[in-house]
Specification:
The chain has ten helices and six strands. With 213 residues, the protein is of the alpha/beta class. The protein has a six-stranded parallel β-sheet, sandwiched between helices. Helix 8 packs across helix 9. The two termini are 35 Å apart.
Length: 213
Amino acid sequence: MPIKVALVDDHTLVVQSICRLLESHSFIITGVYATGAALLEGLKQDVPDILLLDIQLPDRSGNELARIVSKTYPGLKLIALTSMDTIFHIKDMMQHGCQGYVTKQADSAVLIQAIRKVYEGDTFMEEELEKRWMKSLLKTGRDQALQTPLSRREKEILKMIAEEYTNQEIAEKLYLSQRTVESHRYSLLQKLNVKNTAGLLRIAVQMGLIEFD
């Protein structure tokens, strides 16, 4: 089934270029909006799978729109598409509901990859931006945002969940019972206030709790 994509950006040439790119990869464009107000009105009629959201718009900020849209349409996945590449803007947009962050300077293949990854339930960020962002988060202390810090074992299991190990595989590798692993997984869901593994990984990545080698 083709992926439905909408775009909000007030730069006509940018919009035209992106639309041609998306159509060449068989995405369905459900809407193109130049303002936040137009976006919110348009979503009442047709909700896409993916929304490409510029940060700087004439009437609303990107983070405000991301917060409103993610709350109103929880099934809609957001990708920030902007010329801004600062850690502040990346963190701001990811914390307000975006699952992806791509700069307009990126190669077209990166944007296509971002759309497909986010559609499948992953988070996405350009490699260099992700390295800078993760480094920044690690410097500020990853557990400060948690009311109850994660234990060493919970962090270990969280990383293995991110690497797609099953409960049984985790138990075997850490010499634990499967019941113990399930208990740790439940504890992680509670501490990070999420309902499932997808939510767990999204929040963990946003908070910089997962370290990749």
